Amino acid sequence: MDLSAQAPGPLVSAIERRTVKFLGYRPDIDGLRAVAVLSVILYHAGVGVLSGGFVGVDIFFVISGYLISTIIFQDLEAGRFSLGRFYERRIRRIQPALIAMVLVTLLVCAIVFVPLDFKLLAQSVGATVLFSSNVYFYLKSGYFDPLAETKPLLHTWSLAVEDLFFPLLLMLLWRHARRHVATVLIALTVVSFAFSIWQARVASDAAFYLPFDRVWELLIGALLAMGIVPPARSAALRKALGILGLVLMAVAIFLFAPHDIFPGERALVPCMGAALLIYAGQGGPVGANALLAARPMMFIGKISYSMYLWHWPLIVVLQYVLFRKLNGLEILAYLVVVHMLAWASWKWVEQPWRDANRLVLSRRQVFGYTFGVTAVGVALAVSVHATGGMPGRFAPDVRHYAAAALDTNPLRPACDSPSRKRLDAGDVCTIGTSSKPASFAFIGDSFGDALVPGITQAAHDAGKSGIVLTHSGCFPLLGVVQTDNPSCVGIMEANLNLLNKHPEISDVVLVARWTSALLGSRYGQFEQSGWFIKDSQTKQVSYQENRYVFERGMLRTLEALKGRNVVVLAYLPEQRFDIPRALTLSQLFGWPREVALPVFEHQRRQAELRAAFARIEQASPVMLRVLDVGASMCDGKDCAVLRNGVVLYADDNHLSRSGAIALSDVWRKALVQNEGSK
């Protein structure tokens, strides 16, 4: 995003040939930038009252569209625009501070990141220097995904949205359709906005990261720069518009939440707020714009680009080593450090590179250095990826712990989440003794996928064969819809249709993150709330409704499985920490001192689930066994994370491949009817 403070002088609209007067410097825009960057930083720091602080990026996009378009239109009107000149200025503005941040982040993370996380960081470095990190993070995970908190360069997605679009589009329109520039830009704004509304509902990650869903935000700023709306001449009107703009931004910052559909139409609220403030300040700062032009706000606005760059990797590293979010005093200290880093970056990195007189480089040299940095970044990404995250940074005993993060189910690519087409065709994985026909079905979500290696071993030991019907992220509850994952709709129905075609499959084993379905929250290193489920009887989603929906869904599932033996694997301990990381850092630095989950915390997390399953067993229409996995993993003190030197978990709640195999005696109880108990 362009956070430049300079807005050039008079701009002549080539569309209406009307002169629109702009101040050479807009201090209120610096203040608007301060509002945007502070909302993002405070939101990421965990200041709960700013539940919609992420909209600061949308405010930035409007500012950026306005300033970039102002510069481009001025140069086009004066006949001096060139892509080379534009990109040279952009490189001087964006890249030096970005590269400094990336280098420091790499060096720090090389000390504390386990190989898997360091490999992913290196990949994101390659994407960042290629200005394609928005696509990379779209393919990897959602912005609000809990795992996003381990990605130090996640925030660079916003830098990749705008740089190629504006200069090329505006130059082509100016040269070939000058009389229709406004019409084309308005049409693009409307189409992009409508597309964003649609895609936010069907593919929310794509809507958040990909350019066309965000273009309308930039174009709002561009349309303002063109002077399509005549300036407001009344000071009273400008004051009223400025106040309205502040109110709209406050509504978004304080009332929006990560689980809202976004961007879509909700993003219009902060964007229109920013646009109104930019528009109201065109005749000079009055009212709300005067407040934004205050010196403290101007200062924060000037260093806002560096603040944005440094705030996220700093908080990611802090939370990575603390294994928790920051508390009150820590947040205050964090904010002080962010301001110090931002000021240093602005003064000693940004300013020298932006001033061509202080750092004299030809355009060819600027582009040459850029090419070199890009090549080095890509080479680094490839080399670190090829080594699996440079595990040689650690001693052998530490590497053993860290390697568990990569010790996951090798059958996942082939077996997990088969498509509806595959399910309808019966094209699913078979595990166990290949000489025997399938007699059991293993149905679950990602918890189930993680257990497949152990279930496979247990089936071999028991002389049995079975089919795998796991779908990561989808609770195996018939008739239940997950509000955060519409792709799960119909999956359990398809699983049951497949079973109906195979009456010889007499046994069914069910496993899932049952506590999340019941309580609506994720426990552990990446704790998260708002996991709501609903069914045809739901009138309003809520945490209490989750409890009703869970029991109805489970009973509905059991009814559909009449005539079969059903075993539910439950009470799998969910750990507080990412276990490979915690064991690694505990070995390196002595922190955390106690890695394993205390048993009283495990029992507290599972208490409501135990009560729910007790009611379900009483009402079950089939012979049901609920197997207590935690009973085999927990003693009187804690729930084990190691067994005979084997790291049992690959993260904070999914078992590792080796862990699942080490517990194969537990899974054998689910496959053999005369073993195990409720």
Summary of the model, kept short:
With 678 residues, the chain is an alpha/beta fold. Strands 3-5-4-7-11-13 form a six-stranded mixed β-sheet. Strands 1-2 form a two-stranded antiparallel ribbon. It has 27 helices and 16 strands.
Topology (SSEs and partners):
Blueprint: E1 11-13, E2 18-20, H1 27-45, H2 56-78, H3 83-112, H4 115-129, H5 133-140, H6 165-176, H7 181-202, H8 204-209, H9 215-225, H10 235-255, H11 268-280, H12 288-292, H13 295-302, H14 304-322, H15 328-354, H16 363-386, H17 396-402, H18 412-415, H19 420-425, E3 430-432, E4 440-444, H20 446-462, E5 465-470, E6 481-482, H21 491-500, E7 507-511, H22 514-519, E8 521-522, E9 528-529, E10 533-534, H23 543-560, E11 565-570, H24 579-589, E12 597-598, H25 599-619, E13 624-628, E14 638-639, E15 642-643, E16 646-647, H26 657-662, H27 664-671
Parallel strand pairs: 4-5, 4-7, 7-11, 11-13
Antiparallel strand pairs: 1-2, 3-5, 6-10, 8-9, 12-14, 15-16
3D architecture notes:
By secondary structure, the chain is of the alpha/beta class. It has 2 domains: 11-393, no CATH class; 408-575 and 598-634 and 654-671, Rossmann fold (3-Layer(aba) Sandwich). The chain is built from 27 helices and 16 strands. It has a 6-stranded mixed sheet with strand order 3-5-4-7-11-13. The protein has a two-stranded antiparallel ribbon with strand order 1-2. Strands 6-10 form a two-stranded antiparallel ribbon. The longest helix has 30 residues, at 83-112. The radius of gyration is 28 Å and the shape is globular. It starts with 10 loop residues before the first strand and ends in a 7-residue tail after the last helix. Mean pLDDT is 90; it is low at 1-23.
